[in-house]
Design brief:
667 residues, mainly beta, Alpha-Beta Plaits, Methylamine Dehydrogenase, Chain H, five-stranded antiparallel sheet, 5 helices, 15% helix, globular, RNA binding, Nucleotide-bd_a/b_plait_sf
Length: 667
């Protein structure tokens, strides 16, 4: 009470209180003040002259752990609060920043307790209601110009059905959360999460002005946002300040804030390497990691601090990748120029940080890591120099069997080592993978299996498809089927639907100017789109069956985004799914009857459509017949009783002139 200051009735909207500062003695007072001033100067806000006050305890002669800062305007104070509240300061302090007016309001709380008003019960939005659709349809979102629309994919009626549409729903882009519970929209004040099956009302807002990028953790527990404050002078790159915030999705609480120059959040380039933080596999969202120069920083979400309070030092590390299901982090260290240190791929178990497997690689020019969706395998594409001159390279694979004892590693070389590897993709939830290799425009496509009846523990080739017109692979989410695509973003748009179980082509089609291909989450349908980002004409989307039959198409001017709504994993166990599959005939009668009713309805609609077309044709024909009869009478009146004259045509040819000229010929 001795330290309370009497305040007048004036407003203090331009004053903030910064709490959770380090408690230091007078010998470090100026250093702490300088660090605080530097933090706020980086934000572009100006502290008033004599606008900084950090109280000192007269008994201990140390600071009290908080300070008061006065800015020129309330807007600057509000910006300073938003930018630094929850941000890390030093090694172990997380700042708590409040407006001074809020502190004063809390000091004036009544001493007598008053019971809160009981609000009437309002049921929460059912985020999974759309999964209970009786027709088992899936939803997708499209963006056309300033319009955003969510639709049902109604293949029974061979069309899409609008669910919700809104103009200027977002100011940048939209994206689904990983489990499909939310539609994320971006706005100048921050990010909004919308949910439901039809209304898509905003459920939560997360404040981060001028946000540019967002990422949602795999279990939808956390939201990561990014904003880059550009300098007033474009040539002053050092003044570009970036800010990353991590929010709790359900509570909206800011859990952690990271600030620094924009260059600190980029890896090997001028633009941000998004996502900066990579989440560990699984839905518990326990860990997330960040790659920095010679350092891998892994954080745990219980306290949002570094595991073991320190980062892992890994010299020259350039890439990290989490297992999709386990807390295993794969990292790649390239070969050093002097050749004294080979390239290395290592698997790190978290949170113990124990290296459970590693492989040294020699004469390596580059690597790329591919996890199988269940985390059973890790394929590392290795590009090696073919000679000491390092003028040419060849590629192969190092495949880690992650969930087997001692994590054995297999080396896979293509039949022709000099083939260029154009694309690689694992079969989702399966044990097969596909590789496009060779020379464009007619490379080969090979399929391999990690286990077969003859070789249960060794990778073996299933088949090679020679001279295919393909440069990209798209597996069905349920496996078994794959699309070999060619010419995306170009003008060919050739698609080959292939059955890997039977090793047969089901269909080969062309989707002229297609720029995007995306399987629906059930693997029943495929969407292709022609977007305005590449082509200005014929924008729209096409819905195909899994076997390559075009079901319907919809033209949409200025279409530039198409995205299926993801589905969460099935709640049924593998045993229950096998049981349902065995007893599938019991359900067929019901669905066949429904399909039959739809087929009858479609035939009636088609019949009615043809009838209306015939009626329109007859009306048009009778109109012109009537007009012709009226003109016929007029023509007869003009001609009268005289006989029509007969006309004869004669062609006369006449020679006008003839001249000769000798042209000299030279070798």
């Amino acid at each position: 009470e001795d330290h309370l200051v009497e305040l007048d009735e004036t407003e203090f909207g331009n004053v903030i209180v910064v709490d959770q500062l380090p408690v230091v003695g007078m010998d470090r007072f100026e250093k702490l003040e300088g660090a605080i001033r530097k933090l706020y100067n980086q934000l572009g806000v100006v502290i008033k002259e004599d606008g900084f006050s950090m109280p000192v305890d007269s008994d201990t002669n140390t600071t009290n752990g908080y300070c008061f800062i006065e800015f020129n305007t309330p807007q600057e104070a509000q910006k300073a609060k938003e930018k630094t509240h929850g941000c890390k300061f030093g090694k172990s302090h997380i700042l708590a920043v409040y407006m001074f007016d809020d502190i004063e309001r809390l000091m004036n709380v009544k001493e007598e307790w008053e019971p809160p008003q009981i609000k009437p019960y309002a049921p929460n939005v059912n985020l999974q209601k759309w999964l209970t659709d009786e027709k088992a349809r899936d939803q997708f979102v499209i963006r056309c110009g300033s319009d955003t629309e969510v639709l049902w994919n109604d293949t029974r009626h061979l069309k899409s059905e609008s669910v919700h549409t809104l103009q200027n729903w977002t100011e940048s882009f939209v994206q689904w959360s990983p489990l499909g519970s939310y539609l994320v929209t971006l706005h100048k004040p921050g990010v909004a999460f919308c949910g439901g099956a039809s209304t898509f009302k905003p459920l939560m807002h997360y404040k981060h002005p001028m946000v540019e990028l967002v990422d949602v953790s795999p279990g939808e527990n956390y939201l990561v946002t990014y904003q880059n404050q550009k300098p007033n002078n474009p040539q002053d790159s050092n003044a570009s300040q970036a800010e990353i915030k991590i929010f709790n999705v359900r509570s909206g609480r800011l859990m952690r804030c990271f600030m620094g120059s924009a260059d600190e959040f980029s890896v090997g380039g001028s633009s941000v390497s998004w996502p900066v933080f990579k989440w560990a596999g699984g839905r518990d969202d326990k860990y997330f990691a960040r790659l920095r120069k010679n350092t891998v920083s892994v954080y745990e979400t219980e306290t949002f601090s570094l595991i073991g309070k320190k980062s892992m030092k890994v010299d020259n590390v350039v890439d990290i990748s989490w297992s999709p299901t386990d807390s295993i982090l794969a990292l790649f260290v390239p070969e050093q120029v002097d050749g004294n240190q080979p390239a290395r791929v290592a698997l790190i178990q978290l949170p113990s940080k124990v290296e459970i497997r590693q492989k040294n690689l020699f004469n390596v020019s580059g690597c790329k890591m591919y996890w199988q969706s269940n985390g059973d395998y890790l394929a590392v594409k290795v590009d090696r120099y073919s000679s000491k001159s390092k003028k040419s390279t060849h590629s192969g694979f190092e495949i880690f069997r992650v969930k087997e004892k001692d994590i054995p590693i297999e080396v896979l070389e293509l039949d022709n080592k000099n083939d260029q590897i154009i694309d690689f993709a694992w079969e989702p939830n399966g044990h097969r993978f596909a590789v496009i290799h060779g020379e464009l425009p007619r490379p080969d496509v090979s399929f391999y299996s990690m286990r077969t009846t003859q070789h249960t523990g060794r990778v073996s080739k299933l088949v090679t498809l020679k001279s295919k017109q393909a440069n990209a692979l798209f597996w069905s989410p349920t496996g078994k089927y794959i699309i070999l695509a060619d010419g995306l973003s170009g003008f060919n748009g050739k698609l080959e639907f292939y059955n890997v179980d039977e090793l047969v082509t089901m269909a080969t089609v062309e989707n002229f100017m297609a720029t995007d291909i995306e399987w629906d989450p059930t693997g029943r349908y495929v969407a292709t789109a022609v977007t305005s980002s590449v082509h200005e004409m014929e924008n729209g989307f096409y819905i195909w069956s899994f076997c390559g039959k075009l079901l319907y198409q919809t033209l949409k001017e200025q279409l530039f985004q198409f995205s299926w709504r993801p589905r969460p994993p099935s709640l049924l166990s593998n045993q229950k799914e096998e049981e349902v599959e065995k007893n599938l005939k019991q359900y067929l009668e019901r669905y066949e009857e429904e399909d039959g009713d739809v087929s009858v309805l479609l035939r009636k609609q088609e019949k009615e459509k043809r009838r209306m077309m015939i009626e329109e044709w007859e009306i048009w024909l009778n109109k012109w017949k009537k007009l012709n009869e009226e003109e016929k009478i007029q023509r007869q009146n003009l001609i009268g009783d005289e006989e029509e004259e007969e006309f004869y045509y004669e062609t006369i040819e006449e020679l006008i002139d003839v001249s000769e000229e000798v042209i000299p010929f030279e070798l």
